[in-house]
TrEMBL record:
Highest taxon of the lineage: Archaea
Organism: Infirmifilum lucidum
One of the record's GO cellular component terms: cytoplasm
Covered residues, full protein: 246 to 605 of 605
Keywords: Aminotransferase, Cytoplasm, Glutamine amidotransferase, Repeat, Transferase
The protein's Enzyme Commission number: 2.6.1.16
Broad class of enzyme this protein falls into: transferase
GO biological process, one term: protein N-linked glycosylation
Subunit structure: Homodimer.
Record's protein name: Glutamine--fructose-6-phosphate aminotransferase [isomerizing]
Substrates-to-products reaction catalysed: D-fructose 6-phosphate + L-glutamine = D-glucosamine 6-phosphate + L-glutamate
Domain SIS intervals: 37-176, 210-350
Catalytic-site annotation from UniProt: 355 (for fru-6p isomerization activity)
Function: Catalyzes the first step in hexosamine metabolism, converting fructose-6P into glucosamine-6P using glutamine as a nitrogen source.
Length: 360
């Protein structure tokens, strides 16, 4: 087993470090399956997208991005809740099922229910020949390679990369992006592997240091707005599942409708900022938390004005809103990993969790 870890103490850290390479592999694999998947999604009346856990966060991102780029109705839902969503679906709709393993029973049940209704199904998985890929009308794959750590890391960033590409292809079909626009965005996406590498190099030490503070806390909030929200939700899930620190991801604007009641001196609140147009509102939320004594940490783009108001900041070396979400989860993965290590728990095998959930 230690040979398979290639010198890393845990699979989770090895897989975090593999991200530049597997994102590159995923981009290199953007081919005909993506074109056909995008065509099928574009042809549907309403696009539904479903998944569980981390894959749900990626799906939520896809829904937000596709709606923003295309003006289309895109409805994300947690796969175990499919019975509530099937009522509003009809045979002209299309479902995108996202699952790294391609075996999650909740997502498979949602897929079968939509198929039974007559909907076309596109899948995005990491495993060729998995049941969800086999049962879909069009299978699309990320190329993350096998993920051993129970916590999803490289499968999440490759999902985001793949889903960004699908969203752009749908936008092209809807006339919202011309061939030139697609080409230049693909060029921008190609910058991702180097940028991911840069973020890991720059902020691994930061995450190690910050983990000492977080390991001593019993709770944390992860807040964001817009396209950053799925990243905040995923950051919170990572901390909770591997480091056993209670963490909640919330839309920043919603925090004053309840969650803020828990905030007192030193309570850690992580802010994730993606869209420049939402920065002013996010700044208001930072001020609200600071006024209650919160310890504020920001994952912010280069040039962001939020930096001056935060106790701690991680500045991502990009301002490109298409790339930022993928880059911004990296320091949060590292923070969760090092907090687990600091607490002396095994991040590869969190208690009570299985890599693939095959019971409903
Ligand atoms: C993520 O860290 C978890 N292990 C879990 O939420 C996971 O994403 C979920 O069970 C879905 O798995 P899938 O992508 O294989 O369908």
């Amino acid at each position: 087993e230690s040979a398979r870890k290639e010198g890393f103490p845990h699979f989770m850290l090895k897989e975090i470090h593999e991200q530049p390479r597997v994102i590159n592999d995923t981009i290199a694999g953007f081919g005909r399956d993506y074109e056909m998947g995008a065509e099928m999604l574009h042809s549907g009346d309403t696009i539904f997208v479903t998944a569980a856990g981390t894959s749900y966060h990626a799906s939520m991102y896809f829904a937000l991005l596709t709606a923003k780029l295309t003006g289309r109705k895109v409805i994300p839902f947690i796969s175990s809740e499919y019975e509530s969503y099937i009522h509003s679906a009809s045979s002209g709709d299309v479902l995108l099922a996202v699952s790294q393993s391609g075996e999650t029973i909740d997502t498979l049940m949602a897929l079968r229910a939509f198929k039974a209704l007559g909907c076309k199904v596109v899948s995005l998985t990491n495993v060729i020949g998995s049941v969800i890929s086999r049962e879909s009308d069009q299978a699309v794959y990320m190329k993350a390679g096998p993920e051993i750590g129970v916590a999803a890391t490289k499968t999440f960033t490759t999902q985001l990369t793949a889903l960004t590409w699908l969203a752009l292809l749908i936008a092209q079909r809807g006339g919202r992006l011309d061939a030139e626009g697609i080409k230049s965005t693909r060029e921008r996406i190609k910058a991702l592997p180097d940028l991911v590498e840069e973020v890991i190099m720059k902020y691994e030490g930061w995450a190690k240091g910050m983990s000492r503070l977080i390991a001593a806390k019993s709770s944390a909030y992860y807040l964001s707005r817009g396209l950053g929200l799925p990243i905040a939700l995923e950051g919170a899930l990572k901390l909770k599942e591997v480091a056993y620190v209670h963490a909640e991801g919330y839309p920043a604007g919603e925090s004053k409708h309840g969650p803020i009641a828990l905030v007192e001196r030193g309570f850690p609140v992580v802010f994730v900022s993606v869209e420049k147009s939402l920065e002013k509102k996010l700044l208001g939320n930072i001020e609200e938390m600071k006024a209650r004594g919160a310890f504020t940490i920001g994952i912010i783009p280069q040039g962001s004005e939020l930096g001056a108001r935060l106790d701690e900041k991680v500045v991502i070396p990009s301002r490109d809103e298409v790339l930022l979400p993928i880059l911004e989860i990296i320091p949060l993965q590292l923070l969760a990993y090092y907090t687990a290590v600091e607490k002396g728990v095994d991040p590869d095998k969190p208690r009570n969790l299985a890599k693939t959930v095959t019971v409903e």
